[in-house]
Task: structure prediction
Amino acid sequence: MSTTLSQLDEVKTGAWDGGKSPMNVEYGKIMMWFFLLSDAFTFSAFLIYYGAQRFSKISWPDPDVVFQSIPGITDHGAPLVFVGIMTFILIMSSVTMVLAVEAGHRGARNEVIKWMIWTILGGLTFLGCQAAEWSHLHHEGYWWGSFPETYTGAEQVGALQFANLFFTITGFHGFHVFTGVLINIIILCMTMGNVFEKRGTYLMVEKVGLYWHFVDLVWVFVFTFFYLV
Amino acid sequence: MSKKKIWQVFFYLLGITALEFFIALVLIPKGIVSHGIGNFIYIVLTLVKAFYIVAYFMHLKFEKVSLISSIVVSLIFIVYFIVLLLTEGAYLHVHMNK
Result:
């Protein structure tokens, strides 16, 4: 070597030294991840507040008693069955979403369309089930600020908080499902309009897929803390 | 991710949910498992489900370590918040209900 380079002058070539994409993920996808992280904070704030309220009250409504109807079939005697169906539908629609993403990787336009349609149908069915359940609970006397007259004395404090938090949290989740369905419909239309075909990549399907799985993920927690625990 | 793996993860999620129902509808009513232990098992199973959804469906397991850690490490704030608020709730349970 004729010339000696001092250490400081050497151009660094590591992943984080500039000019590279160290996480190897496209910008929009990273932003979707960090949006979901912030959304996770919002949902956990709701659920943790729910936990704190439940810890602090002397009595709390028993989920097996509150949720024991299958709207349209029976009003009582079937604890957890209806929410079980809802959980299954949401997990299923998550699977069809991954299948759409997988088809997108292969550039198989028609398969993406098929699986997106199934995902949208799953989302709409879930929303329908939730509407039925809300309406049933509303008829029983639960709503924001109200609960059935069967609760007496000190039980009323817990029942009120339960009602408020149930509608707020499942409502916020349902709103996410609703927007998820809307975004999925937009993506379906874009796929049908050959937008991704021209762009040469189905990355957009992957990004909305992340959002859709997150909605499923939140439901897993809502299901545990409202219906099981 | 292959189609085979997707369906495998689906059956894991379905199996875990079925197990949760079995605990809630059979084991707890029969008194084989107490409510406290049941709740502990529910939370563990929920975290396992969350892992499968995030790792496989959301593909996080196969991303670069820097992305994985920037997401997962941030969740420490949630753990901290749980500790804070449940402590507060337990305190109120004793002192507010006097």
